[in-house]
Amino acid sequence: SVAPPCFGPLIAASPAITQLVKLAPVDATTRTAVGSAGVIGTPATLPDKWTVTGGFLVGPGAYLANREGIANLDLSNRDLSGIQLHTNTISNVNFSGSNLTGASFKNVTFTNVNLDGANLSKANLSGASGSVTGTPSTMPWGYQVLAGVIGPKP
User: Fold this and answer.
1) With contact defined as beta carbons under 8 Å apart, do 16 and 10 qualify?
2) 8 Å CB contact between 115 and 96
3) Strand partners, 143
4) What is the CA radius of gyration of the chain?
5) 2 Cβ contact partners less than 8 Å away, ≥ 6 residues apart
6) Is 116 helix (H, G, I), strand (E, B) or coil?
7) Cα–Cα distance between 26 and 79 in angstroms, integer?
8) 39-40/10-11 β-pairing
9) pTM higher than the cut 0.85
10) What is the pLDDT of residues 88-125, one digit of tens each?
11) Best exposed site among 4, 36, 51, 67 by fewest CB in 10 Å?
């Protein structure tokens, strides 16, 4: 599939940022959304379940694959279903209690990532490795967290 356009840096006070998210809304059948990096500030309005966190537009189906800086973020208790985070190193991110159904963590390296209570059903963890904390409420078939390490079941 083709990656959506990446917008950034953007000044969030501009009405253009809200329009960018509306131009590429999350679609449950195609999982398309805007990619972002370097967003500055907080827009006056965003679609439901979307926010700016750490300079990224974050919400269900957000495309954050191949991005630098996915670190030190609080993404707890959010609907991040279908979020695309593949081919990243994700460090010190709190996903506790979040809905990560259908998320892509393909080829991700986790470092101190909190997954306590997160729903990872139907998530793509192919090639994912590294250290996590907490116990997810649901894991995709064939995967486990064992002694703080995420990976395939033997």
Assistant:
1) yes
2) yes
3) 152
4) 15
5) none
6) coil
7) 12
8) parallel
9) no
10) 899 999 999 999 999 999 999 999 999 999 999 999 99
11) 51
List pLDDT tens digits, range 6-44.
444 444 444 444 444 444 444 444 444 556 666 667 777
Cα 110 to Cα 46: distance, rounded to the nearest angstrom: 29
Q: Six-digit token pair at 7?
A: 């917008």
Q: Are 103 and 85 in contact (CB under 8 A)?
A: yes
SS3 per-residue string spanning 31-70: CCCCEECCEECCCCCCCCCCEEECCEEECCCCECCCCCCC
| Rounded Cα gap, residues 14 and 45, in angstroms | 10
How far apart, in Å, are the Cα atoms of 99 and each of 52, 61, 102, 146, 149?
Answer: 17, 11, 9, 21, 20
